[in-house]
């Protein structure tokens, strides 16, 4: 149970290396993504250009980018509205509530969606509970906000218990997590 909760299905070094054509082959219709440290570096104000380009690249392949964030609408909207990127705010990760709502709202099936994030405890757990495919990425910046630092502490313990240290390798392409 513990394993299934936190374990990502895939790993990749950064969300920006996801290949829209490959996702299409996998039958993916939407990429659900965490915001802080997955799409945007939380401490850098203008890291949004790459995000906008990535959104366009996905859109050209017919894939939607939908941000799943625990932040409120105002904060998330501020970052995403200028680029017309869709989002689901107050998602309450690690609970699957936000993801489930977004699935329903956008008429998506579980197997058509990747949940991408940089944290096992929030992003991977929420994605796994919602039954979508999960992708762990390396945090965009090494430092974290204080509340994330607490999660990271527990994450280290989970990494140890799941014996993930050797298994999680972040490459430039989507890697299936071996057992
Ligand atoms: Mg994050």
TrEMBL record:
Keyword Hydrolase among record annotations:
yes
Short name of one Pfam family: HAD_2
* Keyword match Repeat: no
The UniProt keyword set, sorted, is:
Hydrolase
Q: Which Gene3D superfamilies match?
A: HAD superfamily/HAD-like
- Return one GO MF term: phosphatidylglycerophosphatase activity
- Domain of life of the native organism: Bacteria
Matches recorded under CDD domains: HAD_BsYqeG-like
Q: What is this protein called?
A: HAD superfamily hydrolase
Which species is this record about?
Answer: Lactobacillus psittaci DSM 15354
